Amino acid sequence: MKDFFEPKSIAVIGASRDETKGGNVVLRNLICAGFKGKIFPINPKSGEILGLKCYENVLKVKEAINLGIIVVPRDRVCEALNDCGKKGIKSIIIVAGGISKFDEEGKKVWEEIKAIKETYGIRIMGPNSIGVINTSVNLCTSIVDFSETTFKKGNVAFFGQTGLFMSGPIKWAMETENIGISKVASIGNNIDIDEVDVLNYLSEDINTDVICMYVEGIKDGKKFYEVIKKVTSTKKVIVLKAGRTDLGARAVASHTGSMASDDRIFDSICRQTSMVRVFDYEALYRFGKGLSICPIPMGKKVGVISITGLGCSMSSDLVDEHNLILSQLKESTIEKLYTIFPQWDSPKNPVDLWSAIEKSGGEKAYTSSIQFLLEDENVDILLVILVAIKESKFPIRETIQKMRKKFLHKPIIFAFMKGQREMVFDMKCEAETGGAPVFFSINEAFEFIEALCKFERHSN
């Protein structure tokens, strides 16, 4: 697997001068990402592409090649793959789609690829793969243009049977959501390389702490379970699985040719390990980001601070629904809260902060209440529910950073109940850069807290 993510040299078979062709985009992405290894464009009709010497075929390249990216139409894939085998290239990404069991020609090409793979001992990612990203070595092999993208390095990996991870959503994740990426892989139709292979590789990757995975079908349930047990002992794994219903299973089969695994068995694997299952594509990103910056709590007792009574009432229901515990605040904490609350009020958990804001002002009410609850040994996790209005303004980033240094194992999580548009995104940015994940619904915040506590159970 190392040659897929850390190659020293790459051949782009099907390199093109035409900027609209995948063979040109792949080459451009490699150059613009700043890949330091050698790049060999392969095209019998060109002498030079994007300033790089072009070769008639891989056999004309005298130097060793670690990774071959085949970007040619389906009917030319086997010829290109055979040349790669003769050249001794052991790792291949096949971009072409339509190679599976959909039609007779697709089946024929599929079987021929398997035969060539066995003959030469090649590992193949794909077909229908658009490759990998590795931010630590400036590698991007996507057929979607990333030439103007600034890659944000981090500790979150994304992979699965979808090209979406190698296109617009991952750009949004890095540029707008500020998610730091370690690795990305679009593994395609799994003729060879599958989830188990990628998980095994990521389990040893020092740059990856969180793994976000999209799954359609599992080839070998026992092997998958064993590798998940191993990976989740050191990494946080989040999974989105399609094919939960009969209709979904048919859609999976038409997309990648995969057979959707029994959903009850998959759920059982999630329950027996700390792998967290989500049911929404957006949640995969939000949970991945949250887990990348949040400490694992020591328990599941939740303290809540809300600007509104509605947030307090909803939180009380959601604590129960998500198998959490509503913290019973110590008397000493209640006494501290009275320093910012009017005497007629009776603060308790969840803390309805509005009367404290009226008495002490927004900044003092928030900074003090956050500190008081985190100082309480009965609080393992703190949820702060905000509405982005003037009365909610306080130095969010500085407060979180100060509290994170004092309370290393107590996650601070924010839920926004809308508000003034610019203020929402300014406050969100402050919270996240301070080290606290942000959610835009109280329910989703509690789903995330439940996931955090699953890691707590499995780590103890």
CA(first)-CA(last) distance: 32 Å
CATH fold node name of the largest domain: Rossmann fold
Mean pLDDT over the full residue set: 93
Q: What is the general shape?
A: elongated
- Proportion in helices: 40-55%
Total number of helices: 17
* Major sheet size, sense and barrel closure: 7 strands, mixed
Quaternary structure type:
single chain
Strand order of the largest sheet: 9-8-11-10-12-13-14
- How many beta-strand segments? 20
CATH architecture of the largest domain: 3-Layer(aba) Sandwich
Strand content: 15-25%
Q: Please name the fourth-level CATH homologous superfamily of the largest domain.
A: Succinyl-CoA synthetase domains
Q: What is the radius of gyration?
A: 25 Å
Query: How many structural domains can be distinguished in the coordinates?
Result: 3
CATH class category label of the largest domain? Alpha Beta
Low-confidence stretches: 255-260
Query: Structural class per helix/strand content?
Result: alpha/beta
